[in-house]
Specification:
The complex is a heterodimer of chains A (306) and B (469). Chain A is of the alpha/beta class. Chain A is built from 14 helices and seven strands. A five-stranded parallel β-sheet of chain A has the order 2-1-3-5-7. Chain B has one domain: Cytochrome-c3 Hydrogenase, chain B (Orthogonal Bundle), CATH 1.10.645. The chains are: A alpha/beta (306), B alpha+beta (469). The complex binds iron/sulfur cluster (3 copies). Chain A: One of its GO terms (molecular function) is oxidoreductase activity.
Chain lengths: 306, 469
């Protein structure tokens, strides 16, 4: 039987929960694959040899994560970076906007409720100065994005993989799955995401909300926009952004707004606010995104460290 | 001195380890529970537009994202001075019940029960959900169904089953459709039934392992949690603290938490330790704490269960392993509450959101009961609504001291000499597991939690590292 391992690195474990969200089909999965290592679900403490598929969720945030991920690469035939943290650093990547010492002191010495001045250091793995996406450290065979990947999508890929097939992966952006109408708008103004109540049926970006749908990988079924909420980009960059070195979340989003509003680029850029938390919150830990010639990530890091 | 290590602690959420120090005679001199990860949310929320917090903070924990979403939304409502419509409050409560049903079912059946159903010494490669499926497929199926109901309620009220998005400043982003209401009502009925079937199963497990229940994981503590009019409360209400004898120590609105609670750090854990400024300071939160602080649950079937529990274990039981029984009572309470919310005709009302205009207060504090205990989100913003300071206190932080001391007590009870079996170490893990610790949450600050068990000699040399399996 195929041997399956799962590893939660620095993560919220939501990616593991999403596998459990296969519900009854979990039994089918367990009938076809033998779970040999999965610290959240079982007591095997070290990954054994001869793993067929290792599903890695979470980012690399400390030395122990780093060792685990290398060990799993040695022991597994196929490695899947599962979820946005593993693929692009996820929210943990936001830690890069501050130095390690700033993070430690804000939590352990400067917090309003904390009275001690101790910074932990014994018997615990050392924190790295930044978070890393798994694929920036080891070779990855498949990237499955989503925060977490939606279970309907998982049904389409995980079960075929376990059966030895190469799954068909959808390649569209969130906009392609969204049922709102995108049309040219006049007098566009950017709104904060809390302002007003969005109108039904109309594109949120057109209504002035920073909706990341057009630059975000689909596969979630446009869940947020469907429920009246602008897309936050939690599934990571869309395929066109990923493929092209001169395309980035920021510049493509600005371009889309330009198409929609016919406003000059400079005017749109003036209105953008809190770029790290509104445009890049899920990809700050990704070298792929940071290394793009047009990426704003290097500027954000520099600015925050000054 | 020798040192035993259990690393990583498994079937818990996040990364942690246990170390046990043995003296020259092989007796336990000291033991600790270590959270081994940290991610840094409190810091990287700085600079964020505050309305983004309810979408970023659920990523602290994928098992309890809903409670972070709700605590954060409550804090943000306060910042915008938002008036949340009645129906939106009901929908938020329903969303919360989805969280409790899913998380309690997950912990109870899939993570904790394998130790009791299969036995603490059972083959560690199978002492888990896979073994449970083999040994008791009916129970395993019911567990999966129980979780599914919770996740379906969360999805239909939160927009997503994991990391819900619907609580927005001023209410909810969408109303519940009538057809969905009917579908969820049928599910909630089934959930009540699953809770009813589970109760005798769990109580029998507590009986079967009475020796363990009454001898390991024993700590004497105060208890803290939310209540409203003395009843079990998850979303709102005052924080009540009682001492180990049941005498009330404090009763205060969550926003005053700084006058009552403080935190300290220890060198050996990324997770901080909280302390009550009153009483002896040492307290616990979560299911056992909640059933201990309340006068009654407030729903009929769960109240019957509480009466049975108190008749058997007394008014303020202290045993760590009884967390599982308390969790089952709450699983019933959450199912019954979901059902009554779904049977309320107002739940499908379309008025679910009041528009907000701008920052009204520069501080917002949201307190809710998370599945594992009291959760506090405290944000300070500038006049444009950008976060300048964030402070988070999560359930496992409140329980950290208790877990640490319960690990010491169990090790002292169970370990004599360095020839320690895997099953013995698993009994220590069972004590940790009873708290359903969420190290991801507790170390929201920067990372994740592995647990390890090490034995050191009096010179600090590691003599034995017990890796399980
Ligand atoms: S990708 Fe999202 S769901 Fe998965 S571990 Fe990261 S934060 Fe959690
Ligand atoms: S920008 Fe957003 S709202 Fe507009 S079509 Fe794309 S996903 Fe839908
Ligand atoms: S719509 Fe956007 S933010 Fe929402 S789940 Fe999909 S990718 Fe994530």
């Amino acid at each position: 039987m195929l041997k399956l391992a799962t590893e939660p690195l620095a993560s919220c474990a939501g990616c593991h929960v999403s596998i459990l969200d296969l519900h009854e089909d979990i039994l089918q999965l367990l009938g076809k694959a033998e779970l040999v290592y999965s610290p959240i679900l079982m007591d095997v403490k070290e990954p054994p040899d001869g793993i067929d598929i290792a599903i890695i969720g979470g980012a690399i945030r400390n030395k122990e994560n780093m060792e685990r991920v290398k060990k799993l690469r040695q022991k597994a035939k196929t490695v899947i970076a599962y979820g946005t943290c593993a693929c692009f650093g996820g929210v943990s990547g936001l830690s890069i906007i501050h130095s390690r010492d700033e993070i430690l002191s804000s939590v352990y010495t400067d917090s309003v409720s904390t009275t001690s001045k101790t910074i932990p250091k014994d018997d615990i793995p050392e924190l790295l100065y930044r978070g890393y996406a798994v694929g920036d450290v080891i070779k990855v065979d498949y990237y499955i994005t989503g925060c977490p990947p939606k279970e309907t999508f998982l049904r389409k890929i995980l079960l075929p993989l376990v059966e030895g097939h190469v799954p068909e992966l959808p390649k569209k952006s969130v906009c392609a799955e969204c049922d709102r109408n995108m049309e040219l708008v006049k007098n566009w103004k950017l709104k904060r995401r809390y302002e007003g109540i969005p109108e039904e049926g109309k594109c949120l970006l057109g209504q002035g909300y920073l909706c990341m749908g057009s630059v975000t990988f689909g596969r979630c079924g446009a869940l947020c926009t469907h429920h009246g909420i602008p897309c936050h980009g939690c599934s990571g960059p869309s395929l066109d952004v990923l493929r092209e070195p001169c395309r980035d979340l920021y510049n493509i989003l600005v371009m889309r707004i330009q198409h929609l509003t016919e406003l000059p680029q400079a005017e749109i850029e003036k209105e953008l606010y809190d770029v790290p938390h509104t445009i890049y919150p899920f990809v700050m830990g990704s070298k792929i995104m940071e290394n793009k010639s047009v990426s704003k990530i290097p500027d954000i890091i520099k600015e925050r460290h000054l | 001195m020798k040192k035993l290590t259990i690393h990583p602690l498994s079937r818990i959420e996040g990364h942690a380890s246990v170390t046990i120090n043995l003296d020259d005679k092989g007796e336990v001199a000291d033991a600790h529970f270590h959270a081994t990860e940290l991610r840094g949310f409190e810091k990287f929320l700085e600079g964020a537009a505050v309305e983004e917090a309810p979408r970023i903070t659920p990523r602290i924990c994928g098992i309890c994202p809903t409670v972070h979403h709700l605590a954060s939304a409550k804090a943000v409502d306060e910042i915008f001075g938002a008036q949340v419509p009645e129906t939106a409050l009901k929908l938020r409560r329903l969303l919360d019940m989805g969280q409790f049903i899913h998380s309690h079912a997950l912990h109870l059946f899939l993570l904790a029960l394998p130790d009791y159903i299969l036995g603490p010494d059972y083959n560690p490669a199978l002492r888990n959900v896979v073994g449970l499926v083999q040994a008791n497929p009916e129970l395993a199926k019911m567990a999966i169904e129980g979780r599914k109901i919770g996740q379906r309620i969360t999805e239909e009220t939160g927009g997503k089953p994991i990391h819900p998005v619907s609580a927005v400043p001023g209410g909810m982003s969408f109303a519940l459709a009538n057809e969905k209401r009917a579908e969820l009502e049928a599910m909630a009925k089934r959930s009540v039934e699953i809770a009813r079937i589970s109760w005798p199963v769990v109580m029998k497990m507590m009986d079967k392992y009475a020796d363990l229940v009454n001898s390991v994981g024993l700590v004497q503590s105060d208890f803290v949690g939310l209540t409203r009019n003395g009843k079990l409360e998850f979303y709102d209400g005052n924080v009540r603290a009682i001492d180990s004898g049941g005498v009330q120590l404090a009763d205060f609105p969550g926003k005053d938490y700084l006058s009552y609670i403080e935190e300290t750090a220890e060198p050996y854990s990324y997770m901080k330790f909280t302390k009550l400024k009153k009483g002896n300071g040492f307290y616990r939160v979560g299911p056992l704490a909640r059933v201990n602080i309340v006068d009654s649950i407030g729903t009929p079937e769960a109240d019957k269960m509480l009466a049975e529990f108190r008749a058997k274990y007394g008014r303020v039981p202290q045993q760590s392993l009884l967390y599982h029984a308390a969790r089952t009572i709450e699983y019933m309470a959450a199912s019954e509450t979901a059902l009554s919310l779904l049977q309320d005709s107002a739940i499908t009302d379309k008025n679910v959101r009041t528009a907000v205009t701008g920052v009204k207060n520069t501080r917002g504090i949201g307190v809710v009961e998370a599945t594992r205990g009291t959760l506090i989100h405290d944000y300070t913003v500038n006049d444009k609504g950008f976060i300048t300071k964030a402070n988070l206190i999560v359930a496992t932080g409140h329980n950290n001291r208790a877990i640490d001391r319960a690990v010491l007590q169990s090790s002292q009870k169970l370990i004599h000499g360095d020839n320690v079996s895997e099953g013995t170490l698993n009994r220590i893990e069972m004590v940790v597991r009873a708290y359903d610790p969420c190290v991801s949450c507790a170390t929201h600050a920067i990372g994740r939690m592995p647990v390890q068990l090490t034995v050191v000699d009096s010179e600090g040399n590691v003599i034995r590292e017990v890796t399980k399996c």
